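ok so for the tutorial part 2 we go from a plain amino acid sequence to predicted structure tokens. step 1 is just haveing the sequence, like this:
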Amino acid sequence: MSMSTWDTLASNKRKSLLDSLAGLLVPEDQLPPDSQLEVINFPDQSSWFTDDERKITEATASDLLSKLASKELKSVAVTQAFIKRAVAAQQLVNCLSETCFDRALNRAKELDKYLDETGKTVGPLHGIPISLKDTFNLLGLDATVGFTSHIGDPAKYESILVDILIKAGAVVYLKTNVPTAMMIAETVNNIFVRTVNPRNRDLTSGSSSGGESALVVFKGSPWGVGTDIGGSLRIPAACTGIFSLRPSFGRFPTLRCRSGMPGQEAVPSVNGPLTRNLTDLELWCRTIVSAEPWNVDSRCLPIPWRTVTLPNKLKIAVMYNDGMVRPTPPVKRVLEETVSKLRAAGHEIVEWSPEDQSNGLDLLNSMFYADGGKSIRKELEHTGEPWRPELAPYENAREIGGYEYWQLHLERQDFQKKYLDRWVTAGIDAILCPTTPYSSVENGKYKHVAYTGVFNVVDYSCLSFPTGCVVDASIDLPYPPDVLPLSDLDKEIQSEYDPKIVDGMLVSLQLVANRLEEEKCIKMCQKVLEALG
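step 2 — the prediction. this is what the tokens look like for a chain of 533 residues:
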């Protein structure tokens, strides 16, 4: 490796990925032209897919599991259908990083044979394909996390979550693209370059689980698994219009994953599902927790999946903006419409002051930059790979000493206590706020992760959900000039907003529950969706 330049390594890696798709690619003359921005409906419009393949890939995960268990569907057929759709997704939006299709199909054959011979399923996920973000280790495959230095360094073991999924009967068939070090708000790196949004290829799919969000919304995966350290599940879910849950640390296993900044645990990374509906999201969570992951990951808390009964009337605090950046006009409109519908449904609405949000963002950034960018720099220097411009804050950061780092921990502890006190004093069930300032945004223009990242600092359970509302360019006009910006960044973001570019994009919001309240967060989201109709 030391004799190769970073760009040669990257070029060879891209070729290797393309070679793994041989015989499965959609012919060039059947693909939509590059000028066609919306490609999410390509499988419905193309003769490349059979009716059976479309039916399989459009089904919910819950429905697929039922049909697999009853032998109405074979795992081989289901896996082949999702492989075919995932390959098309790769050609159209560039979302994959690793494939193991032969391994997956052999696994599917074994599962079909076992069910035929015994009449029993292997486990609750019997026969269903599941895609994984590149951070998860799969035996024999790279986990580059966007670094050329990790090319040709295949994993020698599986991540603990992968072990659980396989034991439960899942079929793992591919991994998806992430940004360099997984610390950029869009999915772009020097190996696989950029993943774009299937709803509009001029727009970002978000990050750092942007490869997963693009694949799931394209229906190239029935269930995606990503990670979140500052919004890396919720931001891509919001950009593509799907569901994702950011759990509190300890609910789901995180052991034996590859990190972009190994050893950074002041803000712990968590993993969670990306799904097209809330039912599948809850099923994934319940299945993983029911596997008792605390027996294989010592950092998991022994908390079984709980039944939650909600009051008829929720008390929801609304944070209309975070005091730093206003949501763009469509997000503002949809948030206000959602509040009106919640009030009409009988729920109590109070306002949540953003007074602590800027402090939370400062803490988040201080903890991320504490090593002066040394972890990232070390990996780049192995191959001479250049810094991406999006990583400039890490490139220019100042390394702090142990004492200063400990003081950050004390500040974080004080911040968490202050946030909890405010929550308890207000007597609220949840906070409703934007997931991001955007519906989505043009590639290369995503800015501001505070709407998600501050809740990583306090370690709260958060769910990003599509409201069903879309951007309407005729009414979601830019703010008038007499509306003063909250900051220079706010001014920049609002000046770049163009309703014509995001017209028709789904608008998502974020529901925040307290720490370790994943079950309640999901049930409250159901209530919100009911109010939205």
